[in-house]
Amino acid sequence: MPNSKTFYLETYGCAFNKSDSEILSGFLKQHKFSPAPPEKARYIIINSCAVKEPTEKRMLWRIGELQKTAEKSGAELIVYGCLPKINSKAISEISGEITQIGPDLGELADYLHLHPAQNELEIPEERANRFISIIPICKGCLQNCAYCCTKFARGKLKSQGIEAINKRFQRAIKKTSEIWLTAQDCAAYGADIKTGLAELLGALLQNRGNYRIRIGMMNPQHLLKIYGEFAEVFDSPRIYKFLHVPLQSGSDRILKLMGRGYRADDFLGLAKKLKKEFPELSLSTDIIVGFPSETESDFRKTIETIEKIRPDIVNISKFGARPGTRAKEMELQVDGAIINRRSALLSRICREIGLETNREMIGKKARVLVSGKGSKSGFIGRAENYKPVLLRKNLLGKFANVKITGARQNYLECKLI
Fold first, then answer.
1. Residues contacting 115, CB < 8 A, separation 6+
2. Could you read off the pLDDT of 120-129 as tens digits, one per residue?
3. Which domains does the chain carry?
């Protein structure tokens, strides 16, 4: 039997999940737990993601592998995070011995007979990347999208107070220069506590220091509501000129079925305003291909909208019905072969646009913050608009002045100046 105070933690999914794991790891170490390899750990914890059907399948396969490890060593496997709230039955079918706990640190603390977790923002987190700090600003959302199952795991909007976030932020900038503010919908922040994202950013920017803030995903209708006050504070050079705003479809009919709460023209107008006020903005968006009843005409409208917006990054998802969602029960599910064809076509168009927007950076000067290693070699810095820039020199944790000399599909090349 492994030492009772050892744990192994494996993390999947979004920045919020990564933040959850950093807090969870810090909490366990507060209680004298030590990390260990899975074959030597008393508790094997997998922080799961289930936002998409392919992701869930990978999760279930990995859970099966970790359960085999647990059975051999006498450890206990705990599936933490979103999957237990979304598809508990699928986990139980792997083994009835698996412990399932949703994304709730207090529940995990109770299960392990530890003192209740205090405000999560007060726990000294264990950062996965020592050059980046991730701060969750709110949980849940105000949406009720027909395809989304994350709401079953994260629930309704619950914002952290500005004072608590600021304390965590002040700790973070003493150790790191890149700060991610994360949420299911950053633009909805504060709607439940009579404040807002602009007010939060204004408070954080009062802190002196040489740092940059990356704002997480935000839904367009909530960004539109706060646009004026947000644009004022977003102008700060200490905020990356990068936004992740999901479109999901260019068809108003499909957007209505999805329950998104805006029209394609609303998104177009927002994108135009952003590009006009912040010409260097890097815009990321999401598209779901093959939502129930999507026709060729609907899909063509999505292509047309993407060609007008010209986003730098497009995350394309093939529709897969998720448990408990309205979309799962909708009629006229689109054939998989049609979804694959449409996805391939849209992917090609988006790759071309992304490469073209990267090429527009060639010859420009940038001040990059180096915060990670390249996938194969070199080091990755982020320009003012968060575009990744490959450097050959190890300047991790530092700022560097560069000139962009080349553009690839997923990154920029440069020389130091």
1. 31, 109
2. 888 888 999 9
3. 6-111 (3.40.50.12160), 129-240 (3.30.750.210), 251-360 (3.30.750.200), 365-416 (2.40.50.140)
